[in-house]
Write a structure and sequence with these properties.
Blueprint (H helix, E strand, L loop, with lengths): L1 H12 L1 H20 L7 H26 L1 H4 L5 H33 L2 E3 L3 H13 L6 E5 L6 E4 L3 E5 H6 L2 H17 L1 H10 L12 H19 L3 H21 L1
Parallel strand pairs: 2-4
Antiparallel strand pairs: 1-2, 3-4
Helix pairs in contact: 2-3, 3-5, 3-9, 5-9, 6-8, 8-10, 8-11
Length: 252
C-alpha cells in the first residue's frame, strides 16, 4: 500500500504527467459536450463517442504504464511510453466498440437464425440495393414469433418469422425498405456506439432519442418514396404495435 502511495506521489509531482492527464480529461469532456450539437451527422457523433472513450481511458492507462515504465524501458523513455499509451488506449476503444460488442451480439443472435430462402424477398432486396448502389445485405430469418426487423451494420438484415406471418407482401417490402435504408446509413453502428458510451460514468446525461427518431423517420420516408405511398409502412407499423400490445395483455 505504501509503495502504491509513493508511486502516486512520484507520478503527480511530475508536471508533465499532470498536464497530459489534464489535457486528456479536458478533451474527453469537450467530445462529450460536442455530442449535444444537433447539426452533427450520426457518423460525426459516432467518432465523438469513440474519442470520448479514448480520452477517458488514456489517463488510467498512462498512469499504470508510468509506474511500470522503469521495468519495461531501461531509461524510461517518456516519449516512447506516451506513444505506446496512445496506441494502447486507441486499441482498447477500437476493440471494445468495433469488434467485441458486434461479435458478442452476432454470437447471441445467429444461433436462432437461418439464411432467407424466399426468392421473392431476396430478389426484392437485391433489386433495391442495386438501384441505390449499395452492396446487397445478407437477409436472415430469425426464429421468433414476435414481429421483429432490424439491420445490422451494412451487411445484414434480420426479419422474424412472426413478422413474415403478420404482414402482407407489400407491408413486408415496406419494412425491408426501411431496414435497407438503415443498412445504407450504417445506423446500427451508431446504435451500438451509444451502448458503448454507457461505460462512461460522466455520459449518463447524454441521450440520442432525437437522433434515433430522426433516422427512423428518414427510413420511413425512404419506403414511402420508393412505394409512392405511405399506406404500407403505416399498416406495418400499426400491425406491429397491435401485436406488441396483444402479447403484453396475454402476459397480464
Amino acid at each position: 500500500m505504501e509503495l502504491c502511495i509513493e508511486c502516486s506521489k512520484i507520478f503527480f509531482h511530475n508536471q508533465v504527467n499532470v498536464f497530459i492527464i489534464s489535457v486528456s480529461i479536458l478533451l474527453s469532456l469537450i467530445s462529450l459536450f460536442l455530442l449535444n450539437r444537433k447539426n452533427l451527422s450520426l457518423r460525426a457523433k459516432q467518432y465523438l463517442i469513440y474519442s470520448h472513450i479514448f480520452f477517458l481511458v488514456f489517463p488510467f492507462a498512462y498512469y499504470l504504464f508510468f509506474n511500470g515504465c522503469n521495468a519495461l524501458f531501461s531509461h524510461c523513455d517518456k516519449t516512447r511510453a506516451i506513444l505506446i499509451m496512445v496506441i494502447l488506449s486507441a486499441l482498447i476503444a477500437f476493440l471494445a466498440g468495433i469488434i467485441v460488442m458486434p461479435l458478442l451480439f452476432l454470437r447471441r443472435i445467429t444461433s436462432r437464425t437461418r439464411l432467407n430462402t424466399n426468392k421473392s424477398i431476396s430478389n426484392f432486396v437485391s433489386d433495391v440495393s442495386n438501384e441505390i448502389s449499395i452492396r446487397k445485405p445478407s437477409l436472415f430469418v430469425l426464429n421468433d414469433i414476435r414481429p421483429l426487423a432490424f439491420a445490422y451494420i451494412k451487411s445484414s438484415i434480420f426479419i422474424s418469422t412472426g413478422l413474415i406471418n403478420l404482414l402482407s407482401n407489400k407491408e413486408l417490402e415496406a419494412v425491408l425498405l426501411h431496414e435497407i435504408n438503415h443498412a445504407k446509413n450504417s445506423s446500427s453502428w451508431f446504435k451500438l456506439s451509444t451502448l458503448f458510451l454507457k461505460v462512461s460514468p460522466i455520459a449518463t446525461f447524454i441521450t440520442f432519442i432525437e437522433d434515433i427518431n430522426k433516422e427512423e423517420l428518414e427510413s420511413d420516408n425512404f419506403a414511402i418514396v420508393y412505394q409512392k405511398t405511405d399506406k404500407y409502412i403505416k399498416n406495418a407499423r400499426r400491425k406491429i404495435k397491435e401485436s406488441f400490445f396483444m402479447s403484453i395483455s396475454k402476459r397480464l
